[in-house]
Design brief:
- By secondary structure, the chain is α/β, with parallel strands linked by helices.
- The chain folds into two domains: about 60 residues; about 220 residues, Rossmann fold, CATH 3.40.50.10880.
- Helix content is about 50%, strand content about 10%.
- A six-stranded mixed beta sheet has the order 3-2-1-4-5-6, sandwiched between helices.
- Strand 4, helix 11 and strand 5 form a beta-alpha-beta unit.
- It is globular.
């Protein structure tokens, strides 16, 4: 999905909020904002670009001005820690539910609400509210289950820290129900609060899946197939099913025609474009078989 007009103020607001965490002084924040406001995409002069590509350029500028390679490292660790504290209770709720697989999908999708600017405690509380207020499309869920029944190879593209704890539960459920081995793919370079290989290992992901980096040599909060390592590109091109988490992966992978028919997106409707495309209220849970 290429950027919509709505993406410009959204990216600018997120950029300023992250800058206040990453850059120590007001002069540095002003300089950062002056620089990113020169980007053609943020002036409405380039609509042939995805949000992850714009955010990549914003993040590189933030790294340059802040002098930090991973400005949100502490926040990411807290998000994972708080989610891990919930793990036993969530697993119990999933196993007691009428349909444990669907409940695991709901938790994994609601986990996408743990975004870069949300405090860990508030994020987990908000996630519980989302689960109470929103259901997933039963027809999309049925098609997803059919894809799982037919699959032999599954690649799972992770997104945010905190969220990956609930991905772990869903992968465990998929592995136990369908006997499938899953390859969980992280970012290679830090960007926003997206999970890297070390973040995934810290929540025990290697206990339920093979874990790999995407090999993209840029801080890109999405997945562009041609930028991935040859190994990951081969895995994705040969996979029977790709489970893709988060808006950044959605924005980039819906532009990849060669994967059509094999990708199931799980993410939250956080903005007008997502709500409009999927006919859901703000905060809705999206299961979309592409």
């Amino acid at each position: 999905m290429l950027i919509w007009p709505d993406c410009i103020p959204c990216i600018l607001r997120m950029s300023l909020e992250v800058a206040r965490l990453a850059i120590r002084d007001e002069e540095g924040i002003r300089r950062f904002m002056e620089e990113i406001l020169k980007f053609r995409s943020l002036k409405g002069e380039d609509w042939c670009v995805t949000s992850p590509e714009v955010i990549r350029d914003v993040w590189i500028m933030m790294q340059h001005i802040s002098g930090e390679a991973d400005p949100l490292r502490v926040i990411k660790e807290e998000q994972n820690r708080r989610a891990l504290e919930l793990l036993p209770l969530v697993k119990e709720q999933i196993l007691r539910s009428r349909d444990p697989l669907e409940e695991a999908v709901r938790f994994a999708t609601a986990g996408n609400s743990i975004d870069a600017m949300i405090k860990a405690r508030r994020a987990t509380e908000a996630m519980c509210e989302i689960l109470q207020d929103h259901d997933i499309d039963p027809l999309e869920m049925e098609q997803f289950e059919e894809r799982l029944r037919r699959a032999r190879t599954v690649v799972y593209l992770g997104d945010n820290c905190g969220e990956i704890v609930f991905d772990r539960l869903l992968i465990e459920m998929i592995r136990d129900r369908y006997g499938l081995d899953v390859i969980f793919v992280t970012r290679t370079l830090p960007v926003l609060n997206d999970a890297t290989l070390q973040d995934a290992i810290s929540v025990g992901m290697e206990e339920v899946a093979q874990v790999a980096e995407n090999g993209i040599p840029e801080p890109l909060p999405g997945t562009i197939l041609d930028k991935a390592s040859p190994q990951v590109r081969t895995l994705m091109e040969g996979a029977d099913l790709i489970i893709s988490k988060g808006g950044g992966n959605y924005d980039s992978l819906t532009e990849e025609g060669r994967l059509k028919g094999r990708v199931t997106f799980l993410f939250q409707a956080k903005c007008y474009p997502y709500c409009s495309l999927h006919r859901l209220p703000l905060g809705g849970l999206i299961v979309y078989n592409h």
